[in-house]
Amino acid sequence: MSSNQGIQTLLEAEKEAAKTVDRARQYRVQKLKDARSEAAKEIDELKARKTAELAQYEQQHTGSSGQLASEIEVNTQNEINQLEQAFNTHREEVLNKLLEIVTKVDPQIHPNAKPVE
After folding, report:
1. Residue 90's CB: how many other CB atoms inside 10 A?
2. pTM: predicted TM-score of the whole model, two decimal places
3. 74: number of CA atoms within 13 Å, CB side?
4. Range 66-85 burial, b when 16+ CB lie within 10 A, else e
5. Coil, strand, or helix at residue 1?
6. What pLDDT, on a 0 to 100 scale, did the predictor assign at position 5?
7. Which residues lie in coiled coils (predicted)?
8. Residue 2: in which H helix or E strand, if any?
9. Which DSSP string do the residues of 17-86 spell out, in sequence order?
10. How far apart are CA 83 and CA 51, in angstroms?
11. Could you say which DSSP state residue 114 is in?
12. Greatest pairwise CA separation for the chain in angstroms
């Protein structure tokens, strides 16, 4: 009977070892689940923080581009005004030169023309 008792002890030890291994597996699985959920939470927090940073960056730079657009508009209008003023100042002079060139005809024989005999 002592061999039966030894076998029984071995079976009980084997069952206890199986329970220990099972608990270790469950512990490992639970730790993995916890790690995944913690990582997902950190990812969500990081995503929210980066989205907020992006929105703030866009707001800062969009405002400055609107300001740049208004500055460009003012500069363009100033240049247009200067061109119109220059046009009005030199208009008569340019018209007189054009009329003089168009109305002054100086007939000349073309250098390649051959005299007709």
Report:
1. 11
2. 0.44
3. 6
4. eeeeeeeeeeeeeeeeeeee
5. coil
6. 87
7. 10-93
8. helix 2-103
9. HHHHHHHHHHHHHHHHHHHHHHHHHHHHHHHHHHHHHHHHHHHHHHHHHHHHHHHHHHHHHHHHHHHHHH
10. 47
11. P
12. 154
Q: How far apart are CA 41 and CA 33, in angstroms?
A: 12
Chain position carrying tokens 């209008």: 77
Tokens of 33: 């689940």
Q: Rounded to the nearest 5 degrees, what angle is found at the Cα of 114, between the Cα atoms of 111 and 115?
A: 115
Structure token pair of residue 21: 């291994």
pLDDT digits (tens, 9 = 90+) for 30-88: 999 999 999 999 999 999 999 999 998 888 777 666 777 888 999 999 999 999 999 99
Residue that the structure tokens 């959920």 belong to: 37
User: Which two three-digit tokens encode residue 4?
Assistant: 């039966």
Q: Which amino acid is at 41?
A: K
